Amino acid sequence: MNRMLPSLYILLALFLWSSLGVIVKLSGVAVHVLIFYSVIVSLIVQGIILSRKTYRKEFPGLKLLQYPLILGAASLINTFTYYLAFKHTTIANAVLTHYTAPVIVAFLAPLFLKERVTRPIIISIAIASAGLWIMLNGFSFNEGDALGITAGLVSGFAYAVVVILIRIYTQSFNPVVLAFFSNAVIAILLAPFVREFPVNALWSFLVMGIVHSTIAPILYFKGLRYVSAGRTAVFGYIEPVIAIIFGIIFLSELPGKGSIIGGLLIIFSGYLTLREGK
């Protein structure tokens, strides 16, 4: 496989996920309801894909099912706290706190994945981290934002765990199969808490179920089969930049100068990582 292609899969997935904040804010429904119905849509789409004969042999045995179960539980914590952050603070605050994850991943990867951290990766992480902190110094929030920022930090840690788990599990699972079982766990865990179906938010369920819970995860899992967790961590810094741009375009949430300068540094770090990957 072309060495650049897996990196492009991850970048495209991150671009799609960058629009999450806008969708969550415009949906107007509770976080757990939004996650549940979007996951149901994704399960229907993924079920259709997996009904093909070529995928049937990819289903894991009972002994291996524990791994998608663990990933599903971690993904639910990550998704729930991330969406909660969007609900209770600005998109900029939510994504920037969430993206403490790449730094955590960079430190966990050598420990759990035995991956060698190269000098270009370290430099890229340093530049991206500097950009992130410049953006964080541009925060303007009040007490009402505290819940959203706290949720964003929790989601950042949970996301780091998810990246590590995916990097491990994609070596043994087909990306579509892994996404399907992970989403099934999320649906089962949330089902007891959902007692309504807000028809007015149907559009958001469809968009999130097809784009954010099916297409993006499959691309991401596929890319992680060949891209190291460290490099993926640096790529991840691009998502908050794009998310803030979407916030400006669709919600008129204007960032400060710190966000702009920090965003440019983050983009530059991603460029360095792509060059190192060639």
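(the above was protein one; protein two follows)
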Amino acid sequence: MRRKKHFRVSSELSKKNSDFMSMAYSLLSGMSEVCSESTVYNCETALRALQRYMVSCHPEMKGRLPLRCLRPELVLGFQRYHLRRGVSENAIRAYLRSLRSLVNRCIRMGQPLRGDIFSMVSTSTLPTAKRPLTERAMRRIYGAPVKAGSKDERVRDFAVFSYLAGGIPFADLARLKPDNYNPATRELTYRRHKTGVSVKVRLTKEAHRIWLRYADAPSNSPYHFNLISSADPVDAARECGNALAAYNRGLERLTARCGIVDKVTSYTFRHTFATVARNNYKAEMNVISIPLGHRSERTTAIYVGQIETDKVYGLQKKMEQGLLR
């Protein structure tokens, strides 16, 4: 007995040997209405990576990818191509997960894709070593001589602000708007872009000064630090990705000048905040979890309330004193 199809297949999409590339880009236009901007952005990035592979390794197809050619061997070739280009394995696996999502959407629409196209590769995330910096290394970054108004000053400011503001991730820092901060009370309130968890912290004097440094900068951006210019969520996600890449390159230059040999990325300061708070200042885990906005500590945050918020600020002030001495 044949299983009923649950999707109506348009005549254009049901053509024999339909082009996966054009089909995937058509799907993206509809996904923006039902998926998060980060999902759409990741799929766009993966498709561009696939396009590069096709142009470089299969020029005879002229940028097309017929469904009959979408086979495990081609996906394995895609992986090996990007490994040779120096792309990290986790980034490639992220590409593959996004491509698999698009392939599954095509299958649900009734496309004639047979077998497991991703059977020759792995798409699971590899564990990465997340090495935090020491408080001494943070003092080097804070004290690094930089020219006022330079890119290096912005990189240093964002690193110190992230550390002192309770480990705020770059994706959230880039999306902070002027009304997220009340200078009178020094309360910074924002919602985590990744999880949607609401976070409230009080800024220390130095974090407050960094915030004010960018308050009067000329900008058409709706965001405080002028890292993103577009209010459109999908365009903002794309701009944030580009700004993050530039920031990480800047961190590489700055930390090299500071004599820091470990690899440092934007996320390093989140781990550094948590590690220094725990190891140097013996902070309790439920206190550390509040500024980090961890979903698993929601219940704890509800019970500890304002008392723990004051404890967090006390911890931040101690960490600032350790940074300035």
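Reviewer note on protein two: The mean pLDDT is 85.
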